[in-house]
Amino acid sequence: MLEEKLVTLKGRLIEYATLVEKMIDLSIEGLLRKDTTHLEEVMKVYEPKANDMEIEIDEDCITLIAQFQPKAGDLRAIHTIMRMNNDLERMGDHAVNICESALFLLERPAVKPLIDIPRMAELSASMLKDSIASFIEADPKMARLVCERDERVDELGEQVLRELITYMSSDTSTIERSLHLLRIARNLERIADLSTNICEDTIFMVDGRVIKHHKDA
Q1: Are 138 and 198 in contact (CB under 8 A)?
Q2: CB distance 99 to 91 below 8 Å
Q3: Helices then strands, each counted (H, E), the chain
Q4: How many domains does the chain have?
Q5: Which residues, in sequence order, are CB contacts of 160 under 8 Å at separation 6+?
Q6: Residue 212 in domain
Q7: CB-based contact 205:140 (threshold 8 Å)
Q8: Burial track 180-197 (b if 16+ CB lie within 10 A, e otherwise)
Q9: Pick from 199, 14, 128: which is nearest to 211 by CA?
Q10: 192 part of a folded domain
């Protein structure tokens, strides 16, 4: 009975992850294609759905623990799902933040052509997709490879920061717009970080090993 319920719970988490992926994709598409419809859809349609799903999954996890008092691998699986559920909820919030800044920017002249932010978006989105795949397939090797890509996202974020500091220093009228671009970059970095968390939790679920403070383990 517990095994069947765990399968159902994992399915719900995957459904939730797919919804969050869609939110992130639409937030970036809206920014790059100047499509406010996408941005509004994320904020008004997808976010309420995501919030409801997060609460339902959390409640289901608590119910399973109370009802079955799972041990060992089953307990690790439920613990992992609870942590991933929280990470996905935060990713949804980051997608909303991106939409808010994108709506602000689309009403104003561009500070500069967007080069590194689209690269960050592509990397962050792929990290989320692969982190979920590693969970579905219970594949710690794939999870480790995703973790390794986080550094590249951070490097791109630093590049965005350096460039925008130059723009703000030379033209103070760009400061507010630049800060919104920085906000988008920081939210993409956080999505990548949270994808790494999911991978670390997958490794814990499969191997029972904590690698958070020693990634080379």
Answers
A1: no
A2: no
A3: 7, 0
A4: 1
A5: 116, 117, 120, 181, 182, 185
A6: no
A7: no
A8: bbbbbbbbbbbbbbbbbb
A9: 199
A10: yes
Indicate whether 183 belongs to any domain: yes
* Single-letter residue type at 67: Q
Prediction pTM value: 0.93
Residue found by looking up tokens 């500070």 in the block: 111
What's the burial of 95, exposed, middle or buried (CB within 10 Å: 0-12/13-18/19+)? buried
Note whether 157 and 189 are within 8 A (CB). Answer: yes
Q: CATH code at 12?
A: 1.20.58.220
Which residue's structure tokens are 């997958």?
A: 202
pLDDT in tens, the chain (217 residues): 899 999 999 999 999 999 999 999 999 999 999 999 999 999 999 999 999 999 999 999 999 999 999 998 899 899 999 999 999 999 999 999 999 999 999 999 999 999 999 999 999 999 999 999 999 899 999 999 999 999 999 999 999 999 999 999 999 999 999 999 999 999 999 999 999 999 999 998 888 777 764 444 4
What would the two tokens of residue 188 be?
Answer: 């993409």
